[in-house]
Every structure is written in C-alpha cells, then in structure tokens.
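Hi there,

I know you've been waiting on this one. I reran it after we fixed the sequence typo, so this is the corrected version. Both the input and the resulting structure follow.
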Amino acid sequence: MPLNLSQKQELVKEMSAVLSDAEVVLTADYSGLTANELNELRKTTREAGVFVKLVKNNMLKMALKESQFSSMSENISGPQIIAVGKDDAGKFAKSIKEFIDKHENLKPRAINYQGQDLDISELKKLASLPTFDEAIAKLLSVMQGPIQKLMGTMKAVPSKLVRTIDAVKASKN
C-alpha cells in the first residue's frame, strides 16, 4: 500500500533520527534475497545492535542529506537496504559480514564510518576489529602482566632470604 505524504515525512524523520546517533552505516543491494532471508538478517543483526530497514531511495536520500553520511546518497540506486550501527563498529561489521558470507545475494554498495566513506573491502577490516568487551579484556590482560611479575619478584626476595638462612643453618649443624 503506498504511503501518503505525512507517512513519508514521518519515515524520513525516523531515519534522520536513527542516522543522527549512528557510528557506521552500510547500504546494500538486497535483490535476490527472500523475505525469510531478510527477516533472518534483521534478527541476527538486531542481536549486534544493528538497525536494518528497507527504505525507498528518495526517502533514504532525504534522510542521508540531513546527516553526516550525506556523501552516501550518490551510491543509492536500485533496491537498497540500510543497516545502521550505533555503538560498536566491530560488532556491526562482524554481523553483516557473517550474513554476507552465508547469503551471496546481499551485495554491499557503500559503507561509511563516522562520516568517512570507506571502500567495501574495508568491511573485512572493520569485522576484524575486536568488540568493546574484547578490547577491554585484552587491555586488562596486558596491564596485568607487569603487575604479576612485580609481585612475583617482590615475593621471591623474602623467600630466597629464608632459603639462604635455612641453608646456612643446615650447613652449621
């Protein structure tokens, strides 16, 4: 059923609001995907905090024009789906890349990270980034190593002294 003017304006406002909080945006050609596959895409990416929506090209261009992702509007033609990630670009890219690996009919057209257009091949690099939680865990493990060595060294000095005194005592007996 076609949308009337007020519904279209509301849709553009909704997309503009979503894009205003976005960190990374991807547009892709979805022709060849079934409705079930699109629902699977929405479900799997929702778990990663990704907003996926089918929007008519003109309305998408209007919404993009009002955001930091305005340069993406040049690449919009044909059937397009938009995926928007708000928090974690690594998680976003991993979820999209996993779906693309399973379903070759989804063809990325444009990707933009924090207002900067990226080449489609950069999606793999983004997917290789650790998630926020993984990055924090790696940082903590790196910071913990020197502290453990210091504690081991500090513990070794008194225990070595005790062993030396025991050895001297044993040699005198």
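Quick highlight: Residues 130-173 form one domain.

Best,
R. S.
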